[in-house]
Amino acid sequence: MGEDLSNVFKALGHPIRRGILDILKQSPKTTGELNEYFPEVTRYAIMKHLTILEEGHLVVVRREGRYRRNFLNAVPLQEVHDRWVGKYMQTTASTLLNIRSAVNQKGGNIEKMNDFRIEQEIFIDGPRDEVFKALTERVEDWWEFRLAPKGASSQFSFDPVPGGQFVEKWGGNEGAVWGNVYFVNAPEEIRLYGHLGMQGAVNSAYTYRLLEKEGGTLLQLSHTASGMIQENWEQDHSKGWEYLLGTLLKNYVEEKEKL
Question: What are the pLDDT digits (tens) for 196-249?
Fold first, then answer.
């Protein structure tokens, strides 16, 4: 934890690196596109800054043909918040999805044809098998968000097989499907499609990839959505994933490993 946070603070210590994060907050960029924002800086210097941001896990890189596309990964900032701010503030958990308002919201943001892509990485100090089980078979133990009506208790189940479902149920025959499984390579990868609190003409899919790294597990999340996307949904889902995976899941697995 100490070394990870040292890299985060080092990454935030230069104005150009902070500027890069501000740009990536709006949308992912290739290295060449980022260079255009800093005409006074060489491409080589931008690449060095990106390397430092990667070491701090604040940037996630995905190769697309000849290009490398850089995505903001705000999970380490959530960890800093949890350590030095969260425990002194009695606030409602900052939800990446504020699903209740997203589902019930009327008016406000105008729907339009759009798309988004979220890429995040979280290091979890626990075996890959245990992280996979926590993501699937044990999701009931840590998944905090609910689609059930206010005042109704609900239960979760996740069947990690092709054709399986991640389901929330309440009442008699009431409930919601959070995801449908269409690919499994346990414990390395599982892919699902599901609205995750969005409604209407939306296609949404998300993937968990688990890599063994330094005695623990690097969890990579990819979430894409397209269709009638409200303008706040990308930001809400990005913050939600940070909280669900970077705080709830991470704490759940790491606390179990201490027992």
Answer: 888 888 889 999 999 999 889 999 999 999 888 888 899 999 999 999 999 999
Give the rounded distance of the alpha carbon of 197 from its chain centre.
15
Pick the CATH number of 100-258 from 3.10.180.10, 3.40.50.300, 3.40.50.2300, 3.30.530.20: 3.30.530.20
- Does position 251 have pLDDT exceeding 80, yes or no? yes
- Which tokens sit at 236? 């809400």
Q: What is the DSSP string of the chain?
A: -HHHHHHHHHHHTSHHHHHHHHHHHHS-EEHHHHHHH-TTS-HHHHHHHHHHHHHTTSEEEEEETTEEEEEE--HHHHHHHHHHTGGG-------SS-HHHHHH--SSSPPEEEEEEEEEEEEESS-HHHHHHHHTTTGGGT-----SPTT--EEEEE--STT-EEEEEETTTEEEEEEEEEEEETTTEEEEE--TT--SSEEEEEEEEEEEETTEEEEEEEEEEEEEE-TTHHHHHHHHHHHIIIIIIHHHHHHHHH-
Instruction: Give domain limits for the chain.
Output: 2-72, 100-258
pLDDT at 106: 47
pTM recorded for the entire structure = 0.68
